Amino acid sequence: MTSLSDLSTLADVAALAATLPEADPAAREAADARQMSLTKPPRALGRLEDLAVFMAGWQKTDRPSITQAQALVFAGNHGICARGVNPFPQEVTAQMVANFRSGGAAINQLCRASGADLDVVELDLDTPTADFTARPAMTEDEVLKAMKIGAAAVPATTSVLVLGEMGIGNSTVAAALAAGAFGGAAVDWVGRGTGSDAAGKALKAQVIEDGRKLHADAAGLALLMAYGGREQAAICGAVIEARARRIPVILDGYICTAAVAPLFAQDKRFLDHCIVGHQSAEPGHARLLDAMEKAPVLTLDMALGEGSGAALALGVLRAALECHNGMATFAEAQVSGG
Amino acid sequence: MTSLSDLSTLADVAALAATLPEADPAAREAADARQMSLTKPPRALGRLEDLAVFMAGWQKTDRPSITQAQALVFAGNHGICARGVNPFPQEVTAQMVANFRSGGAAINQLCRASGADLDVVELDLDTPTADFTARPAMTEDEVLKAMKIGAAAVPATTSVLVLGEMGIGNSTVAAALAAGAFGGAAVDWVGRGTGSDAAGKALKAQVIEDGRKLHADAAGLALLMAYGGREQAAICGAVIEARARRIPVILDGYICTAAVAPLFAQDKRFLDHCIVGHQSAEPGHARLLDAMEKAPVLTLDMALGEGSGAALALGVLRAALECHNGMATFAEAQVSGG
């Protein structure tokens, strides 16, 4: 497939969908056959078996492995904060980026626990996107620029990519993207995000309905222009770049899943190499996962972002591959009944 | 509390319930206060916060940690297999024990992945318990002996105990214990276990109903005499010994949870220091967790036993403590809004 870095319009990006590499069916079949030979009842490892076969298809081998895991956290700021949708000041985005850099955030501990390297990429934090109730949050060029930054952050040889985000106000952007991609009332997609109360939640829904009046025609990748933001576009770029390199992706919770809703709405094949690490406590996430045909690996009542749920799921993915590669077969172990 | 090793009747064991050490409320409160000070919105780490506070209460410190994690897999054989409830021969129990010892089973890989030491304890595999449709599966002395073996297997200084089991036919024993403890029709507690088809499932339900006619009066710890088996009694013994030492316990799936149903039925306080690692794909487990007021950490559609789900949950518990101990506070990180 053509590289994202060579493209100059979102229509070009949309056209990539037809050129995407696909999971290798032979490797999937061979991995599945291996699972059936291991010393356990068929399917007794449930989701762990699915994860091993998933990795096999993208890595094109019946023995997939993780030699390096890369977590990327993209950070951006949002013009919609001018509407008062968030109780925290936008400075917190940069403060949390500093916290990521000094190792004090949840994602730092979770990456250490699951053996992932962590890079943080901030995108023009001093220049928030536009207020999407007044105009499109981003121009086409801004979206493309952020996408390319996201793509460039993907290491060429990583075995698996863990994606996360940080951006004060971006739970409102997430709900707007979800509503734009899948319809329904804004109130069905809105949760309390970070620290909003019931009144804050109602305001978020109102602000999103205001935006939808302005951007009623936005669809597919153009949703990124309508609602933003930069970290969402960067996540989309990283997902596309990973696909070109056959690197499986673990998406985080509500905001990260909503960030790629424009890719799904454009052509759902864009997300075949992506799994969702954790179902957020944000109520819109269950609805979104259903619409995007993704079953989360974990459901731990978290609602943090930062890639926290994806990093936790990496631990499960590692365990799945340990079983897949390390277990004895019935023949090797001389166990009856295989 | 009195040590299990000094007791000679199940009535003595039952009486331990009144002497159990309890979670330390001050340590729980201090751990909760620390969670509120960390650089994240309140409750944003969801279940991870609960796990950290749970560990704090049992370890009596606001900074709980895991210096060593011990997995114990108890193996036993069951007379009920004479009724044809399992498609695998009973020799598979010993064959799987050998597989555990040589490192080829799922639990070996999962313990390596989550950093647990693994001990396997087989209990008289050549002498299955009695067929519980003909007589009690075990005598009181046999139950006590197995309990004491379980208790003796708990290392004095481990930080957390991961419990699992192996025993051909023991999904039938699990359903019988669950039905005996909580009532309802056997068919509501029976699943396909390891490789049974619909007819096998119906036979399991019939066999359990036959047993219940004989053991209608069995309740509490006496359920272990009625239905067995040795690995179930050993798990109960390990749970009690862990409690005496304030060691938190991660139970595995359906069979391991059902193994401690007699403790719960006797006095539910026996299980205050236990969490359940994984909700099994066996349909009875959701019902059992509900009855025993336990929310599983993971739901990954597994149905293997061996302690597999508990070992996976240990990884989540470790991540929870990494966050609890490693994250910066709002003050330390100079982040606004804490």
UniProtKB/TrEMBL annotation, chains A, B:
GO terms under biological process: cobalamin biosynthetic process
A Pfam family hit: DBI_PRT
GO molecular function: nicotinate-nucleotide-dimethylbenzimidazole phosphoribosyltransferase activity
EC number: 2.4.2.21
Classification via InterPro entries: Nict_dMeBzImd_PRibTrfase, Nict_dMeBzImd_PRibTrfase_bact, Nict_dMeBzImd_PRibTrfase_N, Nict_dMeBzImd_PRibTrfase_sf
Record has Membrane as a keyword: no
This protein's record includes keyword Transferase: yes
Keyword terms of this UniProt record: Cobalamin biosynthesis, Glycosyltransferase, Transferase
Pathway named in the protein's UniProt entry: Nucleoside biosynthesis; alpha-ribazole biosynthesis; alpha-ribazole from 5,6-dimethylbenzimidazole: step 1/2
SUPFAM superfamilies: Nicotinate mononucleotide:5,6-dimethylbenzimidazole phosphoribosyltransferase (CobT)
Catalytic activity: 5,6-dimethylbenzimidazole + nicotinate beta-D-ribonucleotide = alpha-ribazole 5'-phosphate + nicotinate + H(+)
Active site: residue positions: 306
Family: Belongs to the CobT family.
Protein's job: Catalyzes the synthesis of alpha-ribazole-5'-phosphate from nicotinate mononucleotide (NAMN) and 5,6-dimethylbenzimidazole (DMB).
UniProt name for this protein: Nicotinate-nucleotide--dimethylbenzimidazole phosphoribosyltransferase
Gene coding for it: cobT
